[in-house]
Amino acid sequence: MTATSYDEIWRNVYGDMQDVGPVHHHMRRILRRLLAGLQYRSALEVGCGAGHNLELVREGRTLDRLTGADISEEALARARARLGGSADFVTLDVLGDPLPGQWDLVLCSLLLEHVVDHETAIANLAAMTGKYLLLTTIAGDFERYRAWDEQVGHVRNYRRGELEQLVEGAGLRVTEAIYWGAPFYSPLSRTLQNHVKASSSYGRVQRLAATVMTGLYHLNSSRRGDLLVVLAER
Fold first, then answer.
1. Which domains does the chain possess?
2. What is the pLDDT of residues 159-182, one digit of tens each?
3. What is the pTM (predicted TM-score) of this model?
4. Three-class HEC string of the chain
């Protein structure tokens, strides 16, 4: 997909999903737990979107450098509005040359499922990683959920163990892999999503449903499911 395509997705698909979506809520809960155990003074998020995770990365810390990178100018504009001058922002195609230098922490969240050449993307992420690489993406059966996934720009779901092998092939050591979401997110909600049109704006009923599902999702397993979180170290 082109930068223009991602701009359109940010205008027409992303939005309230990132703010109140139950999967994003629980993804950040998992990330917060993992980040609490890491020591870092600099952080880069590749595919920073509107900056939600950058807020999480700096939470309770004093950082020497915080950087957000994205291919979409629409996303970067939203991130700048959210973070102000507390972070630097740069336009980056993860399939091009990596940024010069390294950061203690590199975070890449819900991006790899969009990228056709994910091996190059992972190699570039590893090249920018000084200490930790933290990834989130989508696992599962892509054919089963294709109707929804293609609406939001996904080109793959990862097989169990596939991403871990690619990360270690890029020279990093995987220290934790979490497959979260069974049974209420995957397969139940993911199956229902196949019959829903993605929208950037939630109405009152959708917001109420998101609140109920956020509570219900506390019952999901962290050993089985289609939200994949991988932490690796150099």
1. 3-233 (3.40.50.150)
2. 999 999 999 999 999 999 999 999
3. 0.94
4. CCHHHHHHHHHHCCCHHHHHCHHHHHHHHHHHHHHHCCCCCEEEEECCCCCHHHHHHHCCCCCCEEEEEECCHHHHHHHHHHHHHHCEEEECCCCCCCCCCCEEEEEEECCHHHCCCHHHHHHHHHHCEEEEEEEEEEECCHHHHHHHHHHCCCCCCECCCHHHHHHHHCCCEEEEEEEECCCHHHHHHHHHHCCCCCCCCCCHHHHHHHHHHHHHHHHCCCCCCCEEEEEEEC
